[in-house]
Design a protein that fits this description.
The protein contains 18 helices and 36 strands.
């Protein structure tokens, strides 16, 4: 279904004389189809025929698919070989009964479209008529490439295939689309270097006189490299070994077969049966997509038993990391078959918002008989999903109010697939300090909705108390899984995916992102080997959308070369790719508390990349430590952003960043922050349970989970960012002041001429402004940054803070520092907050002065303003507006000889207006 596209056209059945009856169309990718039984009503906006069309609207559809096997071919109905296939018209008029029963909806759509085609203009008819179909049927179609999972339409019998050029073109387009949206591009590993590896596949051995209690193993020796297979008694080895050719120090390969016997006392003895020698200069090369090299039988030389039946089956070839056997092979540069050093692809769990609306409770049994009754007990409702728990506000039951308390509050949780089994809703009695009762709701039975139009059903649930009170009342709640929201699980400024949770709302990808992780250089040692030598075992983690990739770990190298390539589907160009480098500290299993050490991180915003262009750059790896910023090395990355449709890419800039539900029923900023941290914790817990696990410290570093923690360094960086933005306005103000003060007389004279031209021809004002902006921005194109920007320590103001401020940033929450350090930091924060407080007070005073001018707080000042307004209305009634603008401009641009250094009268009048700062205690 991923390669199928459903196109639905909507027409008006009333025939118009000179107007088209086309209302709009909808194109839906097959990847968004839901399975039968899980479909929901989704409203799709109708696409216009042109930009000037006035028709707007939506169409509600329920789309589902059913898994069915294709019908068997009927030899009785198949046409003879020498008979020509029927024309497309005849095939459409006489479909088989099985096809009509199975594809009734498609046949109806084809019939309706055929009728509508007759009502379209003549030009559309000429384009849609298959006039040359009969000629194209005589020439055989080129063979299509074989697919692993071909669609049902391509595996049907020949009679069900329409022999028309339109259908063949559709199949080719589907194949191109499938290759475009796959996990690997057709030319895989074209962005990285091909690394030669020596592959050895050892399958099995054959002995003439095999002993029953003995086990066999195979040893491979290349110079100083030596490795052995598993010891098997009656099973085949079938193992693949991949040796990095650049690290080999010999030109020959020795493959020997050994027997292993275990004595009664537990002593193991090994005996060699024979050896096979290979000259590495004569080993054949294999390049995909060539088929795998077939293993052969080789007779063992130097056999201890002079038996001609001692043979070993194996195959030896030289390939690259693109070989299919590489990922499951024993790899010499990553420590062999250690799970923690293998390359893996992880997927974040699919997250939903679970909305619980607590409406009302009835028939509550607040306490047992011996307990004293309270006139006004306080109650609240607590809902819990896994480790998440939220409470409603407290309500009081009194004689004046109803005995059935009402809340009407929404509690929102993060639900991850596979869902938790139960949602527990509990009514708590604050006065008595115990639970009134609880109800369990199966999460799998909760309704899902994709928009605000489908209101979920509300239900009553019985509350279960203790053993003495099996029935404690009932509660009225409304529960639903919100599929129209995007669950944010990363920082907002580095988001990589903004799709809704419901699959039905997903759009087709607009492009493909290919990332080649080539290698790293000049990495610093982060740990010691054997207590004396420094070493680094580096690997790379890349994250975009829900897909995480992890390269293999290159052991004990400061200049590792991975040369791995990965792809992602791109749904929004304004997203960020995050790549982090880490040192593997878990593969040795020496200490359970050992964590992976972060070596650095880079971010690439896709909107800064040109389409269909390859970017090969080296980025510095900087990591922030308590002692300051430290460069840990450099990483070499290759990027390519391919776009399938330039128009779709441009259109995405005008579409909203988040799904529609975020704007129809928005969540509060504080609530979004709480839910984002809950989603991060769920993602970290799920990825930590993978095999091999992705460490919690790795996920935290990639998701920037600590961005909300107070940091003096980040505060200074953000402040200087604001100052940098305002510096442009300050430069413009200085330029205008230079014109007013005649600092450059020719420029001031030109501004006078421009002012006269604008006043006399005001219709040229906007064209002049936009033309000026066009030339200014176009001239700045040559200064555009050609390579994607990296994280900048200078821009982060790492060197502008002291050691104590960096230590404060690395301090946990709650703090673990001493009381004296906390007192020093608190005093520093008070001084900074005092300056911010003064700035806020000055801004508030300016606004209060404006209000005082209109509220008669100062009667004389407001009276002067009223008199001025009356005089100004009379003057402007008699004075033309152009004359006023021209006179005001000349007055503002007057020569400094006619200026005074004292403040102007309006400025003095405004500063004398009262504010409310004198009323603050």
């Amino acid at each position: 279904m991923a390669s199928e596209i459903l196109e639905l056209n909507v027409y008006n059945d009333k025939k118009a004389a000179r107007r088209s009856n086309f209302l709009g169309k909808v194109k839906i990718a097959g990847s968004t189809f839901a399975k039968s039984g899980s479909e929901t009503l989704v409203y799709y906006p109708l696409e216009k025929r042109s930009v000037f069309s006035q028709i707007k609207g939506e169409i509600g559809l329920k789309i589902c698919y059913v898994d069915e096997d294709p019908p068997p071919s009927d030899p009785a109905t198949a046409p003879p070989p020498d008979q020509k296939p029927e024309s497309p018209t005849a095939l459409e008029e006489k479909p088989s009964e099985k096809e009509a029963a199975k594809k009734e909806e498609k046949a109806e759509e084809k019939t309706e479209e055929a009728k509508k085609e007759e009502e379209k203009p003549a030009e559309a008819k000429e384009e849609s008529k298959p006039s040359d179909d009969s000629k194209k049927e005589e020439t055989p179609a080129p063979p299509l490439p074989e697919e692993v999972n071909p669609p049902i339409s391509q595996t049907m019998k020949p009679k069900e295939k329409l022999a028309s050029s339109k259908r063949s073109n559709l199949v080719l387009n589907e194949l191109k689309l499938r290759s475009f949206t796959g996990d690997r591009p057709p030319a895989g590993f074209d962005l990285v270097d091909r690394m030669p590896f020596l592959f050895v596949r050892v399958v099995k051995a054959k002995l003439a006189n095999a002993e029953k209690d003995s086990a066999m193993l195979c040893k491979l020796v290349i110079g100083t490299h030596s490795i052995r297979t598993k010891s098997q008694k009656e099973k085949d080895w079938d193992q693949v070994f991949a040796f990095d050719k650049e690290s080999l120090n010999s030109t020959s390969l020795e493959v020997s077969v050994w027997t292993e016997k275990t004595a009664a006392d537990g002593e193991v003895t090994e005996a060699v049966l024979g050896t096979v020698y290979f000259d590495l200069q004569e080993v054949p090369k294999r390049v995909p997509p060539d088929s795998a090299l077939a293993p052969q039988w080789y007779t063992l030389e130097d056999s201890a038993e002079d038996s001609p039946g001692t043979d070993v089956m194996l195959s030896v070839w030289i390939g690259t990391q693109a070989d299919e056997a590489f990922h499951e092979a024993w790899q010499s540069d990553s420590g062999g078959l250690i799970p923690e050093t293998r390359a893996k692809v992880y997927l974040s769990p699919k997250l939903w918002y679970l909305r619980v609306t607590v409406i009302q409770t009835q028939d509550l049994q607040l306490g047992s008989a011996p307990e004293p009754k309270v006139r006004s007990p306080e109650l609240y409702v607590k809902a819990q999903l896994g480790a998440q728990a939220f409470k409603t506000a407290r309500t009081t039951i009194s004689s004046s109010t109803s005995a059935n308390p009402t809340w009407n509050e929404d509690l929102i949780f993060i639900a991850a697939e596979p869902f938790e089994p139960f949602l527990v809703v509990t009514v708590e009695d604050v006065t008595h300090g115990h639970s009134v009762g609880h109800a369990k709701i199966h999460v799998s039975s909760i309704d899902k909705r994709t928009d605000e139009q489908a209101e979920p059903r509300s239900k009553w649930y019985n509350l279960i108390g203790d053993e003495k009170r099996p029935y404690a009342g009932r509660i009225h709640v409304r529960v639903c899984l919100e599929g129209g929201y995007h669950v944010v699980d990363e920082a907002a400024h580095v988001t990589s995916d903004a799709r809704a949770a419901a699959k039905q709302l997903h759009k087709a990808p607009i492009g493909l992102l290919e990332v080649g992780i080539r290698g790293a250089t000049n990495l610093l040692p982060v740990k010691t080997k054997d207590g004396t030598i420094g070493t680094t075992d580096a690997y790379v983690v890349a994250k975009y959308g829900p897909k995480w990739v992890r390269t293999r770990t290159i052991l004990d190298r400061f200049n590792p070369r991975w040369n791995e390539q990965y792809t992602w589907d791109v749904y929004d160009p304004c997203t960020v790719l995050t790549i982090g480098v880490f040192d593997n500290g878990r593969y040795k299993h020496d200490d359970a508390g050992t964590k992976d050490v972060r070596l650095g991180k880079i971010r690439v915003r896709l909107s800064t990349l040109d389409t269909n262009r390859v970017y090969l750059n080296s980025y510095s790896l900087n990591v922030l430590l308590p002692c300051g910023s430290k460069k840990m090395g450099e990483i070499e990355i290759v990027l390519r952003f391919s776009c399938s449709s330039w128009l779709n890419l441009i259109q995405s800039y005008s579409s909203p960043m988040l799904p529609r539900m975020h704007y129809v029923r928005p969540l509060g900023p504080a609530q979004q922050d709480i839910l984002r941290h809950s989603a991060m914790r769920i993602v970290m817990a799920r990825l930590a349970r993978s095999e091999p696990p992705l460490g919690q410290e790795v996920v935290q570093f990639m998701l920037d989970s600590e961005m909300h923690v107070w940091s003096m360094r980040r505060s200074k960086a953000n402040w200087f960012r604001v100052v940098g933005c305002l510096s442009r306005a300050a430069a413009l103000a200085r330029w205008l002041d230079g014109i007013k003060t005649w600092a450059h007389p020719p420029t001031t004279i030109l501004v006078h001429i421009l002012l006269v031209a604008v006043v006399l021809c005001p219709h040229l004002l906007l064209p002049t402004i936009f033309m000026y902006a066009f030339f200014i921005v176009l001239l700045r194109l040559r200064y555009r940054q050609r390579i994607p920007a990296n994280m900048d320590p200078r821009f982060s103001y790492v060197d502008a803070v002291g050691p104590d401020e960096l230590d404060e940033e690395f301090d946990g929450f709650p703090t673990t520092r001493s009381a004296d350090q906390i007192r020093i930091r608190y005093d520093r924060l008070r001084a900074l907050a005092g300056r911010a407080q003064t700035l806020l007070g000055d801004v508030a005073s300016q606004g209060e002065r404006v209000e005082a001018l209109l509220n008669w707080r100062d009667p004389r000042a407001t009276g002067i303003f009223v008199a001025f307004c009356l005089c100004a209305s009379l003057v402007f009634y008699a004075l033309p507006f152009k004359a006023f603008v021209l006179g005001s401009g000349f007055y503002c641009l007057r020569h400094p000889r006619f200026r005074d250094n004292m403040p102007s009268a309006p400025a003095n009048f405004f500063r004398r207006l009262p504010s409310l700062s004198d009323q603050i205690l």
